[in-house]
Amino acid sequence: MTHRSRTRRLALLCASTALVTAGLLPSAGASAAPAPACAAARHGLALAPPPPTEPAGNWVKTTDPPSGITTNLPGTARVHRSSVPVGDETVDFRAYGVEVPQDGAAGFTVHDMPGDRFALEDNLKGFLIAYNQPEDDDGTLTSSQVRRTTADGRPALDARLSSSGGAAPEAGFIRIVSDDDHLVMAITIGPAENRKTVEEMHERLVSSLHVP
Question: pTM of whole model > 0.90?
């Protein structure tokens, strides 16, 4: 397993630790450092079953049974179930991810907590901080073209992702959706040279995302 593939899987699982980091950001009302997110991310990655690798185009409707949230993914996903400490409580989450040869990975996470507990912008910052915890020279992931939108009538945030300074630049996209009972993150990331394909995958993912 290459570091690039580990990094892509980490992108999908870091969405869970983004909650930890969002809760520690000054704008979320606290001043502690976000170091726990790094350890949680690496621990989550170690426990995660590897997503199946399937040809692009084999899209499969994927449902999170506890919430009924559905979307289409470019292959059959395996679910990673875990929990993350958020303040004085524990939040359960499920992460679904599929890695596609040459094109990167796509997936989504569902967290069992009100989506407006933290600002959508803070969840994006938390995701980036968790993703960028150093493991080796893999570059720094940043966001751009951040904009507010809606998804199934719920508040949502879209952003482009890109890495710089590493040996293998990455490009990606993220949508964060705030529901009354859940926080949802949909992420697609892959090689920068395949940005167009990555964007097409992400558009297909988010266009089929349904929050009942």
Answer: no
